[in-house]
Hints:
Elements (H helix, E strand, L loop, with lengths): L33 H17 L7 H14 L21
Helix pairs in contact: 1-2
Amino acid sequence: MPSERVQRPDSPESKSDASPGGAGLTPRSPALPADQADRIASRAYELARQRGFSPGHELDDWLQAEREVEAGAPRNTPPDNPFGDVRTTSNE
């Protein structure tokens, strides 16, 4: 009597190389707010323009734009130093 082949759920055949969740499953990622996605897309476009739109760097541009947008605007002034007026014998 031939035995029926049973595929284990953790076998390599049950996984897709394209999806860490397995064959037929789509990975989920958190959705970006529309305004943030627009800012990232605009910045990624600007980075690509600065590079002369050479192909092959689209993901790098997007990831760099994400980092910059999430970090916020750069500070043009040094942070406030509450200890700036403290006098010691070494700086008098």
